Predict the structure.
Amino acid sequence: MDKENQVDSINETSIILSRSTELSSFEKNMLDPNDVSVTIRNGKRTVEGYDLNGNKVVMTTYLSNNAAAENKGLYSQTMSVCAGLSKEERVQEAKRLKKEEKLSQVEIAKKLDVSQKTISNDLKS
């Protein structure tokens, strides 16, 4: 398989999986299979878990309504890994995520692997 067809195959597989709760082979290799959750809501598929080093990992896929059926449309993936932040680093990152990415306290808490109450306190300091 040439490189271009391989990339098309990976993208097509990713689009199909973005509507599924099944894990891709990449996700299976990246995450501890005993602690993974997959949610699909409003065109957004979120896979949360921990990598083999115990770091929090969040992978999010956004897909326009007809992208899976027609293999076209907006398709975007992001992945974040949170590896042992100090309190000061966590506070700084929480404030950045709130200001720059306009995330809710719950979304920030998930990314940083802490409670919403902790984020609430961090944003007040």
The two ends are 54 Å apart (CA to CA). The chain has six helices and four strands. The longest helix spans residues 3-17. The first strand starts at residue 31 and ends at 41.
